[in-house]
Every structure is written in structure tokens, then in C-alpha cells.
TrEMBL record:
GO biological process: tRNA 5'-leader removal
Protein name: Ribonuclease P protein component 3
GO terms for cellular component: cytoplasm; ribonuclease P complex
Similarity comment: Belongs to the eukaryotic/archaeal RNase P protein component 3 family.
Gene coding for it: rnp3
Protein task: Part of ribonuclease P, a protein complex that generates mature tRNA molecules by cleaving their 5'-ends.
Amino acid sequence: MSDPYEAVVPYPDGNATASRYAKTARKYGYGGIVLRSRIDRGDGDLPLSVVDSEKSTIYGVDVVPGVEVVPDSQTQVGGLASSVRERTVVLTVRGGNSGVNRAALEDPRVDVLSRPFGDDGTGGDDDGDVNHVLVKAARDNDVAIEFDLSPVLRLSGGRRVRALGRLRKLRELIDHYGAPFVVSARPDSHLRMRSVRELSAVGSQIGFEPETIREGLERWGNIADRNRKRLSESFIGEGIERGRYETE
């Protein structure tokens, strides 16, 4: 069994540092955190450097460099993905727009489509949705779709009911087509982190078994492990690595 990971919004976009998140994550039993550092610029001049493919731990918690790109339109997805793919471990595209959702799920360079129903989980800017065609694209391109539980945790009334309805529909589609998925409470502060047990309780409201919630939390770590291998100097291709006597 792998360790559960949570994908967090670090300072300055969020209200806590990576160190503070890591300390809280250890308390809640997480093995790692993925940093969602936001990038919403389409000019290619991105403030990133090549990341170290080795693990970096704080308080014994694996801290994974990640980027969440926020495209203005579907035409920006490919350019942003190309600009940052080799310079971050986990690449997430923020959705909520039908065109962006499609572009992200059809691009195998993308690891995760986050917030597919928009910031509040009730539909997005243009009634952004995820249908059977997009879920099959996610499966075929190995792009995980995020079950964003934050609206269920933070909304109330009719908006919470609508968010629950969207998540239930997404669960049925992913179950049917076998697409990959991740789970997150999308904390933008260490005070908004929740334990695996708490997220399992929330997941039960949309028909998830506790094991499924844990699987979605573990996949963040699995994605990180896979991409660290790809970023390492020894990697040549799937199943092929450079030996100690090989050169460029």
C-alpha cells in the first residue's frame, strides 16, 4: 500500500508555506504533499528552473514540486504544457471550461485535470462539464481527473447540492470507463487540510468506498514517482534506463 498524498496551494497563492503544510500533513498521516504553484501566463516566460528528480522531505514528508497552469482558453493548454513539462514533477491543468477540459484530457503531457467543474464545483464559467467522451480521453491519455472535495467541505445549501450532483455523475463515468482519478480537498491553508478518514466520510456522500478515496490520494504519489524517474538523467524511455557505462 502506498502513502496518501494531498495536493496543496502554497504561498503566495495560498496562505501557508510548504513547511507548514508538511508539518500538518505528518500530523494527519500523509506521506507527502504536492505543491500546486499557479502559472497563468501564456508567453512562455515562466519563473521555473529545472527540478531535482530526487525526493525532498520536510518533517519526514515528501514535498513534490508541482505546477497548476491556469489557461485563459483551450488554445493555451498545449503551449503551457510544453513550457513546463520538463521543469516540474506534477503538471496540473485547472479546468472549469469545456474547451480547457477537453484540451487537457487529450494531452498526455498533462498529469491531472483539476477543478473540472470550476472553482466552486457547480459548473464552471461556461457550464463546464465532463462527459463520457472526455472520460474516455482521460483513460486513453492517462490523465487523472480530480475529485475536488473542497466545495462539499466549504459550500452550503443549493450550491453544495449541485456540487455533490456533479461529483456523483463524475464518479459514475469514471467507474464505468476505468479512467484514472485523484482526490483532494484542495487546501489553500494548513487549517483546511483534512485527514484521510475525514475525506473518506465526505466521499461516502457521493458513493465512494473508503478504499477508493485512499486510492485517489495515493495516485498523487504514484504520479510523482513515475515522473521523477522520467526526469532523472538515467531515463531514456519507458522500461529503458542509461547504465553506468553509457553516455549521451
